[in-house]
Design brief:
15 strands, 13 helices, 363 residues, alpha/beta, five-stranded mixed sheet
Length: 363
């Protein structure tokens, strides 16, 4: 994701080229170009180092259906969570996903997911997990969950697993939006999954901050979601981000109060620090100051076993990202192969075929 958002920084770090956007079509075209000794400026979805060191961007690669590529290289017996959704219709200002993969959902078909599970089961694996930005959005393009599609997915996966197989859905590495947590949805999930916890994205206890972040929900649905999840036998892990841009001490106090209330209801709080991620609307935003009193309260929740996370380390990353954003202002015009300006010839090591000169690529 960093290479997609900051190709010039990647070039300055010493890389010859970087993949921009989704890498599957690009890597195939790149290998073909290297084998044929064709100019890499003809490969879609790349940034290549131009003669003066500037990042020269080629036309974007096509966004293909998820079924076009497997989720993992099972022929090499490398397995992992199955990516069932890419892109996100919720454009949260701190998140890279919708701005890298697009502001709409693309779902892997149930048939493709079942084929992945069959291959996993054939190698003796029995646990299945999923990668998705919002688990209960599977099968839909709108704001409301398509529970029929979710049930078709989960039931199909269970049919492909052995009797001792286990399905994990709505837990890491995926999460559930708070407004999607309803009694009907929790009853449905409970029939199929092995996980006893779900991840719910709250991010803040301040309605003002949630609106500024583009979350699309307020704090009340978070409290409701935790109650409903607990009533149906799940322990919620609730994400909070402290230090969001423009966050005041009153906003932080609202988040701490909500976090404490949720912990009393049976939730665990997963604490984060805001990081100005490249490629997001808040790339250049200054993280809000997190005072000592807030830090102490987070430590107190952690000591009680009600909170966890690497928010201190993330604060260090946030400072470095903020400095990088200042060093690479977004106002610089991106150079593309379609510009009228004629690019200088590429350095020999970029045009060379792979067997002769290795090319360092960042993705």
């Amino acid at each position: 994701m960093h290479a997609t958002a900051e190709p010039q920084q990647v070039m300055d770090a010493g890389w010859d080229l970087a993949a921009i956007g989704e890498g599957e079509p690009t890597i195939v075209a790149l290998v073909e170009a290297l084998r044929a000794d064709r100019p890499l400026t003809a490969v879609p979805g790349l940034a290549v180092r131009d003669g003066d060191g500037r990042a020269l961007r080629t036309p974007p690669a096509p966004q293909l259906p998820l079924d076009a590529f497997p989720s993992f290289p099972d022929r090499r017996q490398h397995f992992g969570p199955i990516e069932i959704t890419r892109g996100c219709a919720y454009t949260c200002r701190f998140c890279q996903t919708p701005f890298m993969f697009g502001g709409r959902f693309r779902h892997r078909s149930v048939d493709s997911v079942r084929e992945h599970v069959r291959r996993m089961a054939a190698h003796g694996l029995r646990d299945v997990r999923f990668i998705t930005p919002t688990a209960l959005s599977y099968g839909t393009q709108g704001p409301e969950p398509a529970l029929d599609a979710v049930e078709e997915l989960l039931a199909g996966v269970k049919e492909e697993l052995p009797p001792n197989g286990r399905v994990f859905f709505g837990s890491f590495p995926s999460e559930i939006r708070p407004e999607h947590v309803t009694p009907e949805a929790m009853r449905l999930i409970k029939r199929y999954v092995a996980n006893d916890n779900v991840i719910i994205g709250a991010q803040s206890g301040s309605d003002r901050v949630l609106a500024a972040a583009g979350r699309g929900h307020g704090s009340a649905p978070v409290r409701d979601a935790v109650r409903i999840a607990v009533e149906h036998g799940f322990r919620p892990n609730v994400d909070f981000i402290f230090g969001l841009p423009g966050e005041s001490s009153e906003d932080q106090e609202a988040s701490l109060r909500l976090a404490a209330d949720l912990a009393d209801l049976g939730a665990r709080i997963h604490t984060h620090t805001f990081m100005p991620l490249p490629g997001t609307p808040w790339r250049d935003a200054e993280p809000a100051f997190i005072p000592l009193a807030t830090m102490r309260e987070l430590d107190r929740l952690a000591q009680r076993g009600d909170a966890y996370g690497h928010w201190r380390k993330q604060a260090e990353h946030a400072a470095r990202l903020a400095e990088t954003a200042k060093a690479y202002p977004r106002r610089a015009r991106r150079r593309r192969t379609t510009d009228r300006w004629r690019p200088r010839p590429e350095p020999p090591q970029v045009r060379a075929a792979a067997p002769r000169v290795p090319v360092r690529a960042a993705a």
